[in-house]
Write a structure and sequence with these properties.
Blueprint lengths: L34 E5 L5 E5 L5 E5 L3 H12 L1 E7 L3 H9 L5 E4 L5 E7 L3 H20 L13 H28 L4 E5 L6 H8 L4 E5 L15 H11 L4 E4 L2 H15 L2 E3 L4 E4 L2 E7 L6 H8 L2 H13 L3 E8 L6 H14 L7 E8 L6 H21 L7 E5 L3 H10 L2 E4 L9 H8 L5 E5 L4 H5 L4 E3 L4 H13 L2 H17 L2 H16 L7
Parallel strand pairs: 1-4, 1-7, 4-6, 7-8, 8-9, 9-12, 13-14, 13-16, 14-15, 16-17, 17-18
Antiparallel strand pairs: 2-3, 5-6, 10-11, 11-12
The structure holds 6-O-phosphono-beta-D-fructofuranose.
Length: 521
């Protein structure tokens, strides 16, 4: 959910207040240090120039980067990422394509290698294939009677965008493996499905893992894509030693699709696929957060100031949603459900409001720009219909404002997460950690986090508007003791299953690949 935040190097907007880290290594369950080559499209930082022309680093956006940042504190990391902006490209050129030495905000040293792709290839890779095609497919976002159209443009964007950008990543990884032949390579997400195959071909013995942070859809849906593309995607992933997902649901879909599309021999209980003469561990471990980071941030001056502002404006009951403006997040249906709730509960007019803190996302892609417009229109409809005497039912903020998000986490009575499909949804874990009002979480049954938190949330079908309206009512009316119990149970779970535990589980999967007998996982 995070996007770009301008910051001095090493201090992201998550800590525009004094850096929250007193030291390092505070996560639980972290295994011994390893040499890791972490590979993701968006890097941990990106560079730009400030008003004075000075180069500044801003923290890379997205839950993925947020979550992986802790790897740097606990392991010897070289991070390979796309040079996205002009200044990233300048940094890459100055380093002659090699890695540069960087320091994380907790003082940990790591190496960062930017891959400077051809600009047109990167545009096809990101704005044509990765997001409007792969993201849409994997979140079931198409109305198949209308989209997608697999035309010359898509074939071209695949061949001259997705394929060469992945090859560029693989080349950079191979160069890093020359320097550190024993390092473990840790690929991330839907941008990089082809890179592992390239690396495997050049280095049959390399230790390769891939974590997919988004849902894996059922096998039939892959038939929307041409055979060559859908097979290349599954073949690329199966070049790894380990493929990880957030939930057993996405893992099962991947195994089924691999069996169906490639004839892989899959063991669903153990979680492995035999393919091309190799055995691949396919596991599920839900990612998590670093509770201490949030605890420290929650009491920072900047968050306290933002919280005072929210408290001054809030009505008696506050419903919060925090999302990127992504069609998969289902913001429009959330507003319509709130409208239905207001329609049937006139006594709550003036007493309840929804605060929607939305991060503008991927606005170069028409589908995303249109969805942002739809969000604005939907909020307007509700506000025009119900607002009175200074009460505005939906307070819509379209801005990347992480400090306000953290402040709002403390203040919600109801958190609405109604994603159509979501790999995990970290908001559902972060917000309860900080909440001070025994807030209730309404959670989509199609968010990966539902697998873990289901028994303590109010579950909703993301397409069912009246069900969501009813869930809002139920959440607002729950007895105080039950609200507290549910919230505390979520907190306890998240603290116990923190980011350190996730990292440990990923690395343990590598060890399973080396083990003679595989254990169920
Ligand atoms: O896994 C999905 C993800 O990569 C998350 O890290 C993040 O929420 C989002 O997508 C960021 O997307 P982008 O890099 O396109 O802004």
């Amino acid at each position: 959910m995070w996007v770009t935040r301008v910051c001095q190097f090493g201090v992201g907007a998550r800590s525009e207040s004094p850096a929250p880290f007193a030291g390092r290594g505070y996560l639980s369950n972290v295994p011994e240090r390893r040499k890791l080559i972490v590979v993701s499209n968006r890097g941990p930082v990106g560079f730009s120039r400030d008003h004075a022309g000075k180069r500044v680093a801003r923290r890379g956006g997205g839950g993925l980067v947020t979550a992986l940042r802790s790897l740097v504190s606990h392991h010897d990391v070289t991070w390979v990422a796309s040079a996205i902006g002009d200044e990233d490209r300048a940094v890459a050129a100055e380093a002659e394509g090699k890695a540069i030495n960087e320091t994380a905000r907790d003082g940990s040293a790591y190496r960062l290698r930017f891959v400077d792709h051809d600009a047109a290839a990167y545009d096809w890779f990101y704005n044509v294939v990765s997001n409007p095609i792969l993201w849409f497919l994997q979140h079931y976002l198409w109305n198949l009677a209308e989209a997608p159209n697999i035309d010359h443009g898509l074939h071209h964007a695949w061949k001259d965008g997705y394929v060469p950008v992945n090859a560029g990543f693989a080349k950079a990884v191979l160069a890093e493996l020359e320097l550190e032949p024993g390092a473990t390579v840790f690929f991330h997400d839907y941008h990089l499905y082809l890179a592992p195959r390239h690396v495997r071909e050049a280095r049959p013995d390399a230790a390769l893992a891939h974590f997919v942070h988004i849902p894996w859809p059922q096998p039939d849906l892959w038939h929307v894509l041409p055979t060559s593309i859908r097979c290349a995607i599954h073949d690329g992933l199966l070049a790894n030693d380990v493929v990880g997902f957030h939930t057993p649901r996405w893992r099962r879909n991947f195994l089924q699709a691999s069996e169906h599309l490639l004839g892989a021999d899959c063991d669903y209980d153990v979680g492995c696929a035999e393919y091309g003469g190799r055995r691949v561990v396919v596991s599920s471990h839900p990612i998590s957060v670093d509770p201490q980071e949030f605890d420290e941030l929650a009491t920072s001056d900047a968050v306290l100031a933002a919280e005072r502002e929210i408290v001054a404006r809030r009505p008696e009951k506050l419903i919060l949603r925090v999302d990127r403006t992504d069609p998969s997040k289902n913001v429009v249906r959330g507003f319509r459900a709130f409208e239905l709730y207001l329609e049937s509960h006139p006594a709550m007019h003036g007493r309840v409001a929804m605060l929607a803190l939305l991060d503008p996302s991927r606005q170069d892609i028409p589908e995303y720009a249109e969805y942002l417009g739809a969000i604005q229109r939907a909020a307007r409809v509700v506000n025009d219909r119900f607002q009175r005497d200074g009460w505005i039912p939906i307070d819509l903020r379209i801005r990347d404002d992480f400090l306000r998000v953290v402040a709002a986490y403390k203040q919600f009575d109801v958190l609405l997460v109604n994603a159509i499909f979501d790999g995990l949804n970290l908001v559902a874990k972060e917000a309860p950690l900080l909440n001070t009002r025994d807030g209730v979480v309404i959670l989509s049954e199609n968010a990966g986090a539902h697998h873990e938190l289901g028994e303590w949330v109010i579950s909703v079908n993301p397409f069912d508007l009246s069900g969501q309206a009813e869930a809002i009512h139920t959440a607002l009316e729950l007895p105080a003791a039950e609200r507290r119990e549910r919230l505390e149970a979520i907190r306890e779970h998240v603290r116990e299953h923190d980011l350190g535990a996730w990292i440990a589980a990923q690395l343990a999967d590598f060890d399973r690949t080396a083990a003679p007998t595989m254990q169920p996982g």
